[in-house]
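Reply to dn_fold:

You asked what the input looked like. This is it:
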Amino acid sequence: MEMVPSEENQLVPKEGLFWRCRQSIFEEMKQRYSQQIESAAEEPRVLCIVQDTTNAKTVTERLTLNLPASTALSKLFEDVAHKAGYVNGTFDLAWGGTETMAPLDPSSEMTLVDSGFEAGKKNFLHLTDKDGEQPQIASDESGTADSSGLEDSSQDRFIGPLPRDGTVGCSSDYSSPSYSYSSILNKSETGYVGLVNQAMTCYLNSLLQTLFMTPEFRNALYNWEFESDSEEDPVTSIPYQLQRLFVLLQTSKKRAIETTDVTRSFGWDSSEAWQQHDVQELCRVMFDALEQKWKQTEQLCIQADLINQLYQGKLKDYVRCLECGYESWRIDTYLDIPLVIRPFGSSQAFGSVEEALQAFVQPETLDGPNQYFCERCKKKCDARKGLRFLHLPYLLTLQLKRFDFDYTTMHRIKLNDRMTFPEELDMSSFIDVEDEKSPQTESCTDSGAENEGSCHSDQMSNDFSTDDGVDEGICLDSTASTERVLKPKSSLTFELFSVMVHSGSAAGGHYYACIKSFSDGQWYSFNDQHVSKITHDDIRKTYGGSSGSRGYYSSAFASSTNAYMLIYRLKDPTRNAKYLDAEEFPEHIKRLVQREKESEEQEKRQREIERNTCKIKLFCMHPVKNMMMMENKLEVHKDKTLREATESAYKLMDLEGVAPLDCCRLVKYDEFHEYLERSYEGEEDMPMGLLLGGVKSSYMFDLLLETRRPDQVFQPYKPGEVMVKVHVVDLKCETIAPPVSVRAYLNQSVTEFKQLIAQATGLSAESMRVVLERCYNDLRLLYVPNKTLKAEGFFRSNKVYVESSDSTDHQVTFTDSLLWKLLDRHGNTIRLFVTLPEQSPGSLANRTSCPKAGATGGGGGDSEDSLEGGAKGSRKSVEAILEESTEKLKNLSLQQQQQQQQQQGLVTSTSGSQKSSDNSDFEHIDSPAQDTDSPSTSQPAAPPQTAQQQPLQPQQESRGRVAASGGAGGSGATGAGAAGAGAAAAASSSSDPDNQFPLEERSDSDMNNDRSTSSVDSDILSSSHSSDTLCNADSSGPLPLANGLDSHSITSSRRSKAHEGKKETWDTAEEDSGTDSEYDENGKSKAEAPYLYFRAEPYTQDEGAGDAQKCLLVHVDKRITLAAFKQNLEPFVGITATQFKVFRVYANNQEFESVRLNETLSSFSDDNKITIRLGRALKKGEYRVKVYQLLINDAEPCKFLVDTVFAKGMTVRQSKEELQPLLKDQCKLDLSIDRFRLRKKTWKNPGTVFLDYHVYEEDINISSNWEVFLEVLEEPERMKSMSQLAVLTRRWRPSQMKLEPFQEVVLESSSVEELKEKLNELSGIPLENLEFSKGRGTFPCDISVLEIHQDLDWNPKVSTLNVWPLYICDDGAVVFYRDSTEELMEMSEEERSELMKKESSRLLKTGHRVSYSPRKEKALKIYLDGGPAKDSSQD
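and this is what came back:
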């Protein structure tokens, strides 16, 4: 050996020196690169989120890249190209969320941080077209090259989710739920194709991939040929569709393919895709369907018995007598072997598949009561029962029974216990190897044994003779039937090649398959469309590992991932097949491959066309179809010119024969702002791709197909212009004209803009006033001449109002001018459809019955003057109707007077003073009503500026203003000068001089104050500006809240007056209603009232509504109060506002009464519907109340009885007296006053018991649409004081598993001791043994008898009831109690299960929430005729 000197001048071997140098270099490299690795780990990373906007199908997808901050910008483009499946250099990347959309430089070597990316934050990018061309999809070769290059660097750089350990070429798409649509077009790096999950078809995909990766099954399927000349439809042929799918899986270049053709051949519709089934169940059903289909074919093929040849095995089910040795047996076939994970009743699971197989064939002894009757011994004997494998299939399928049922919780659970399985399974020890001298051969001839299901030896031989050459376990020959020859042990070794994994719980989950390829021995994960390489460690991870108990929470909802089905293949070189290559395909498969290839190419071409097609919204104001804006979608190839696109849009909008093609053009349009952005003059030959900025999934603009008349010329629209809709206002006629479109520039001055408008409208620019409506009802007068439009707030689309006249209106302040009032009215006017009651022919002649209505609606003026400008023919027909309606209204008025006179006799003596006061009020306002027919006396009453034409004629165009509310008391009501709503009220009263309900019209403030004690209603009032009416605001300025009041001031007024003194009778309590001093007793404002717009005209409904149904089309200012709105409707309804109700109709045709007279109509919008119904409206201080009967021991404890009215100041006893006749007449309940009580109702819970002396609104808070319980008493009322507490108690009897009926206990205090003493008196349970608990939930606090004993908090350690955890502070609480010494009844599993069903049914009927509701599963079926059979009767 050659020696060389070392550093220490010692001779060392030359080879040793070499290794020392090598070790030194290695240590140096290790130190250097470890520093780089550490620095790389510490380096900040940049998270890039890329949105592909080049295609409609990829716009919702996101590509995520997590890169080191030092990555070059050019490298970012390479990574995005690889991840998206595009060729680098054929796309641009631009910043997302910015208007500029400036593209990044793809050749820049700047780092990401230097290029503007932020480390540690999300950086949003848009992948866009390059020069109007869509990105080019990377070919397979380029993709492969890229992937190999990326794979080398993937160890140093991280792109997307980290790959799993040991995965080579694992796609990041596998880990990311979002993947690019483009990536689905490229085949996986593994060379295998995935299957698209339709919705919940992962179980199907796992099985199909397993069958595809089984060479024997795939080759046999390829050898079968579909007969094209047969009558069978290929669409419904399951073998043919499977064959097509396998061909695509082997030859397609896509990453994943669809399975819809296969499921369609199963006879499934789209709903089946949303049903998840068991993969083992699918395997059996599919094998059966394939077998049936193959047997139906005319050609006799080997595939007819393919399933049996590959998957079927045989086993013997035997019973052997232990005394005489006699054995009775039968032969069973199987396709899979179910292996128990955990034996029934055991907490220990089997540790391996071998243990489970051993338990599967382990015999059990039949003894004791389970003894077996032996035919030979003629008596019951001990016996041994078990299974023996006689024949093992070529493909051995093992099902691990992980889904079980827990009889303790009665829930389905999944067993996640660990169970190992070998890669090679030796089954030789599980085969029946009995010698031929066993007692079985002697017993086969016994007749008794034969009757028991036994078989003779020759019969057994015949069963197996058809399978010789296929049997691996036992080789039987037809010439020597009783001879058993065991095959070599090696022939019974099986190798694992498929593991179907379930991830989830018994409630649902996800399937995927781990499959080993027989061509290279590599394991792959087939997870729907994702295919990736995996290792043996990944297989071992599917053993499971959760070893928790079989409790409800540990199993039923524990999600885990573990093996569910295992498929082994027998290791037999003589039978093990290989996959067929494309060159080895049968001719019919080669033809099929060619057809599929052509179809895929056609699909690719179609996809390319799709990717190059611009899809954009198209609008057109159709010149014939009522000038309606029509919408459609224009699809045009990017290479088509604008001229060709215009022709396509022309045909799409169906303008042929309507307008010439040369009178149409396409312009850029913004639908949201109704803005014409630009026109394309001189660009008719430009391609649409360049014109629109490329092919995009969505555009920030639309196209408008504009039309013109032949004598017109198109106006050019230039970029940068703004569109202005100009409305001309006529102050004399008080009209606003339809808009005229004008285009202007933002840098134009107001003066220049006025000149532009003058040219378009013909108005004078010198006297022109221009008002800009910047947003809803936000009016701005443009008065600075040199100010630009941009500074004034103009945007893309604007609306202005212009007025040019010689009036002096322009000299006053804008907010005080007539122009402002007209525009303000215009902005606040809504259109309502009002349906009048059929009983009242609402019309214009109702002035006969409501003489003062004319003063209300028109402020004076005779009928002839008010009809000027109306249609004569129309007026004549209306007058004919009015003449008839007058007689009807007179009769109606007489009937009302008679009814009211009869009711007057029922009024108590305490109301005598009010009666005289009411009569005096009517006499007080009756005199002006007699003068209303004289125009000379009524016309001067209203100021000239408030006069309006009579708004009662059809087709009448004049505007009018009516007083929302006016003074009706004092001197203002005594003369002809009374105007507005006060006069209207007087006029209404004159038609019914004996009306005893003058105070039914509630004042605005009263309506608010009556509800001030209700927190809910107060919140509503404060949010709707209803503290007072906007109608009562000062007319000289803007309209804030009337009189400067707010909700707080009115509430304070109500509280101060409420404490001045309490009245004993409810008749006089109305004086203490909290009415503000600025309102009179009828709710009319005493201050000067503004005039709000109201105009009505007849409206004809559909003919099906009938002639008696009258409707009005009402234009009204939505700031008007409901009270004033009703006053304006009086002439049309024909009766006073207090005698009809207003119902708002919602979209679902539900009607709700509007009762808040002081609230405005601000919540209404255009075209809302209102229904008027006859009936007495609520008086001041009255509330509608729904009365329900409380039945504490009924299945439905809440039963509706009647609707009634309670008044403020009324006592509970008085309300009970009012209820008595109603209950007797309508509900057949004849009750005495002392035998029923009223109590608070909160949802379904009974609450406070109302005592007879309680007064509404003083002791009891009451609100609109109030609900109250009526409870029938079996004994006289025991509740005498508010200090008492009424508790509902119920005894629980554990020994009988039942609850006794409710019993009420009245306590004098909140003491727990008193409660126990009362319960002791009821039940006799000793105090030391008595336990109680508060019920949960809403009344009656239902709970299952299986849960009540342990679920409630029994015997809480408290001394009073009003503390935690009881909180019993009000009447109606539910208390359960029991005897602690009473034992719980013992039940068998069957009794418990039966009781559970009964309890579930009972609780569901009572609305109690059941804790467990198993998901209803749809049965898995495959239909051989192409679909489920339909019921002929249904056809």
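The mean pLDDT is 74.
Hope that clears it up.
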